Amino acid sequence: MTKDTDLPAPSGGDIVRSSREYRIAPFDQLKISVFGVDELNQTIRADSGGNISLPLAGTIKSAGLTLEEFSALLRTRLAQYIRTPQVAVNLEETTSQSVTVYGQVQQPGQFPIMGKMTLLRAIALAKGASDVANLEEVVVFRTINGQDMAALYNLEAIRRGTYPDPDIYASDVIAVGDSSSRRLFRDILQASPLLVTPIVVLLQRL
Questions:
Q1: Of the candidates 140, 145, 120, which has an alpha carbon nearest to the alpha carbon of residue 185?
Q2: Centroid of chain to Cα 151
Q3: Which residue in 65, 111, 160, 165 could disulfide with 70, CB within 3.0 to 4.6 Å?
Q4: 3-state helix/strand/coil string of 5-68
């Protein structure tokens, strides 16, 4: 186990992303609205290849596009039939680019990452910490260049501005006040029980 004070961002090989802006993936569910054309307003799910089929627009390869890029492409397709179409596309449900939050939170589960995500925001998606959560022991697990790493954070210190609210990325796993996670840092915490900076360790695979 090695120790550091900064959890690196994952590489492109660890999660499939080209930027922090959300990109549509297979099986994502989108809500599509076309102003003034009620029959085109619908909620539809992309197929396994990331394709979406719509009336008039036909089949659109949506996987890898941002919501704005998909909206622009849909407007171009519909412009052949509708004068100056006004299109809105929103993400309803995603099966990719999510973060897992468990432990002492109100609503454990997987939550989509759309745009910039931080640790405090991720925990807010889980409806916040429970009444019995130990906010000084929040662990973020991440795979970086194929290597498992973990970082221990103190939420109270982050809220006080002692150190910045760290970025969270797709595929991160967050454990809030979980005793099994605490064991990873037991020796470090015994030596320095006051956590005023993040603690990062490299996990050894068995």
A1: 140
A2: 17
A3: 65
A4: CCCCCCCCCCCCCCCCCCECCCCCEEEEEECCCHHHCEEEECCCCCEEEECCCEEEECCCCEHH
